[in-house]
């Protein structure tokens, strides 16, 4: 296992301690979350059910006997565990590297507590090195892309990829993300963008960050 994967595994295992028994929880998407699903399954902790944010996570949950519920069945989720592509010191994030940021944002907003699990490479002082994913309705892709260029961004269609809801993903480099909350809102005002990958309105409440010399909890 690579050093980075080992750190992802350590953060994921620590997160299991924050899962309350007999509650509904949310489970994100990605390689860090895959370690979490495995650790939760092996822990023997009993939860009422979990909302998953992708087919991949749902399949892994089933493999480890974690019961899945539909988001519409849950009034609220006690905790949401997910990774990030970048997370800053205010615990605002870029997500959607796996193209699942729309369901992830819905589940994050349903959850009382959002715990982000990450290795140290994800922790940044400024968001924006990682391209920002936009989920876009197919017929609006060119129109949205032109708007993004006007805003100073360089859009690139994620070729051969469709989101869970059948939309396209456009990855954007070069936007000024120094005001993440303003940019999150501004992007979602553009007709044709279903959701963008900035998590500033709903940042994480806790970051479990794995470093080479151990795991730290940051709020
Ligand atoms: C998926 C996500 C993931 O949380 C993000 O891409 C991090 O993935 P990984 O844990 O594989 O580094 O937002 O849409």
TrEMBL record:
Keywords: Isomerase. Homodimer. GO terms for biological process: D-ribose metabolic process; pentose-phosphate shunt, non-oxidative branch. CDD domains: RPI_A. Substrate binds at residues 29-32, 82-85, 95-98, 122. Pathway: Carbohydrate degradation; pentose phosphate pathway; D-ribose 5-phosphate from D-ribulose 5-phosphate (non-oxidative stage): step 1/1. This is Ribose-5-phosphate isomerase A. InterPro entries: NagB/RpiA_transferase-like (IPR037171), Ribose5P_isomerase_typA_subgr (IPR020672), Ribose5P_isomerase_type_A (IPR004788). One of its GO terms (cellular component) is cytosol. Its EC number is 5.3.1.6. Catalyzes the reversible conversion of ribose-5-phosphate to ribulose 5-phosphate. Belongs to the ribose 5-phosphate isomerase family. It comes from the Bacteria. GO terms for molecular function: ribose-5-phosphate isomerase activity. It catalyses: aldehydo-D-ribose 5-phosphate = D-ribulose 5-phosphate. The active site is at residue 104. The lineage of its organism: Bacteria, Pseudomonadati, Pseudomonadota, Betaproteobacteria, Neisseriales.
């Amino acid at each position: 296992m690579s050093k980075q994967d080992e750190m992802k595994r350590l953060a994921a295992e620590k997160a299991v301690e924050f899962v309350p028994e007999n509650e509904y929880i949310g489970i994100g998407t990605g390689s860090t979350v895959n370690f979490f699903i495995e650790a939760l399954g092996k822990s023997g902790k009993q939860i009422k059910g979990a909302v998953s944010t992708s087919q991949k996570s749902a399949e892994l949950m089933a493999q480890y006997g974690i019961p899945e519920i539909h988001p519409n069945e849950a009034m609220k989720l006690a905790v949401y565990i997910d990774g990030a592509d970048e997370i800053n010191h205010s615990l605002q994030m870029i997500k959607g590297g796996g193209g699942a940021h729309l369901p992830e944002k819905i589940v994050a907003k349903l959850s009382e507590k959002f715990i982000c699990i990450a290795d140290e490479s994800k922790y940044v002082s400024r968001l924006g090195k990682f391209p920002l994913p936009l989920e876009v309705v197919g017929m609006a892709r060119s129109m949205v892309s032109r708007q993004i260029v006007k805003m100073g961004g360089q859009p690139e269609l994620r070729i051969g990829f469709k989101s869970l809801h059948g939309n396209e993903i456009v990855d954007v480099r070069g936007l000024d993300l120094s005001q993440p909350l303003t940019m999150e809102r501004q992007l979602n005002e553009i007709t044709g963008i279903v959701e963008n990958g900035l998590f500033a309105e709903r940042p994480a409440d806790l970051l479990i960050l794995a470093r080479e010399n151990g795991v730290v909890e940051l709020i």
